[in-house]
Design a protein that fits this description.
The complex is a heterodimer of chains A (115) and B (118). By secondary structure, chain A is mainly beta. Chain A has strands at residues 3-5, 10-14, 19-21, 24-26, 33-39, 46-52, 59-61, 64-69, 74-79, 88-95, 104-105, 109-114. In chain B, the strands form two sheets. In chain B, strands 2, 4, 5, 6, 9, 10 and 11 form a seven-stranded mixed beta sheet that branches. A four-stranded antiparallel beta sheet of chain B has the order 1-3-8-7, with no helix packed on it. Classes of the chains: A mainly beta (115), B mainly beta (118).
Chain lengths: 115, 118
């Protein structure tokens, strides 16, 4: 099965707190790509990061960081020092093969950052 | 603005009517995708084009749905005889990915068309 699970449906934290969004994926393919997208209230999906299956290095971009662990099939996303503008729905996504580019999305985690 | 654009942003229609949505991808992007997103769910793949060729259609795309990309640039998605279950956000995405050599590139999404069928 090819699947993405985001177990956290909704999270609320107070501004400036750190928050981690969990993502677990399933795929039989050895080559695959993982993504995170942000969907603010306006509705547009905003690309955040792409990671291929051969690159397990963690990545940091400003207040955002991603932890990719093949051993646990997880690709978690942490926001440090959260801000109200981070409030959105965040989707983890998987593309199992290079030639077949249908994105498989998780159900999303709705993040509320409270002032 | 050179991102993916979609028109209209909102559409309200009565059951049984036909609707058509348009997507303009990022210039020179070869691939164009359509997804559908219902409330509380992640987007689900509907179909995609490599240039003007429609390469795959999801089983979610019933006979009432048709998509075209006649000149390999913009695309249209038509729904005939709309039903209340068609109410959703219809998202378009594009990527520069090539067939030869095969590649997977990041898909960039438009703002979506929200369809409400009364």
């Amino acid at each position: 099965a090819q699947k993405v699970t985001q177990a956290q449906t909704e999270i609320s934290v107070v501004e400036k707190e750190d928050v981690t969004l969990d993502c677990v994926y399933e795929t039989r393919d050895t080559t695959y790509y993982l993504f995170w997208y942000k969907q603010p209230p306006s509705g547009e999906l905003v690309f955040l990061i792409r990671r291929n299956s051969f690159d397990e290095q963690n990545e940091i971009s400003g207040r955002y960081s991603w932890n990719f662990q093949k051993s646990t099939s997880s690709f978690n996303f942490t926001i440090t020092a959260s801000q109200v503008v981070d409030s959105a729905v965040y989707f983890c996504a998987l593309i199992p093969r290079g030639r077949d580019d249908k994105i498989i999305f998780g159900k999303g985690t709705r993040l509320h950052i409270l002032p | 603005d050179t991102g993916v654009s979609q028109d209209p942003r909102h559409k309200i229609t009565k059951r049984g009517q036909n609707v058509t949505f348009r997507c303009d991808p990022i210039s020179e992007h070869n691939r164009l995708y359509w997804y559908r997103q219902t409330l509380g769910q992640g987007p689900e793949f509907l179909t995609y084009f490599q240039n003007e060729a429609q390469l795959e259609k999801s089983r979610l795309l019933s006979d009432r749905f048709s998509a075209e990309r006649p000149k390999g640039s913009f695309s249209t998605l038509e729904i005939q005889r709309t039903e209340q279950g068609d109410s959703a956000m219809y998202l378009c995405a594009s990527s520069p990915a090539d067939v030869s050599p095969p590649s997977t590139d990041t898909q960039y999404f438009g703002p979506g068309t929200r369809l409400t069928v009364l």
